[in-house]
Amino acid sequence: MGRPTKPCRDLRNRYLAGRLFSGARVIIGACCEAWNKLIAKTGRIRSLTDLE
Q1: To the nearest 10°, the Cα dihedral for 46, 36, 25, 12?
Q2: Which of 1, 31, 33, 38 sits between 20 and 30 A of 14, alpha carbons compared?
Q3: What is the 3-state secondary structure (H, E, C) of the chain?
Q4: What is this structure's pTM?
């Protein structure tokens, strides 16, 4: 697998890192929650994916 994309790194760093999960359903729930928080921030994905 290649390097994580900027949106994936942002999700991991902001919402998922440093947590312990008790099972697959909890992981899926946390990922969905993190994704919803990311897309709720207007312009965040654009800022992560803009070419520099």
Answers
A1: 40
A2: 1
A3: CCCCCHHHHHHHHHHHCCCCCCCHHHHHHHHHHHHHHHHHCCCHHHHHHCCC
A4: 0.75
Look at phi and psi of residue 5 and say left if phi exceeds 0, alpha if psi is from -120 to 50, else beta. beta
Q: How many other CB atoms are found less than 10 A from the CB of residue 27?
A: 13
Q: What is the mean pLDDT of the chain?
A: 87
- Interatomic CA distance for residues 14 and 2, integer angstroms: 21
- Comparing C-alpha atoms, which of 51, 21, 49, 22 is closest to residue 10? 49
For residues 39 and 31, what is the distance between their CA atoms, to the nearest angstrom? 12
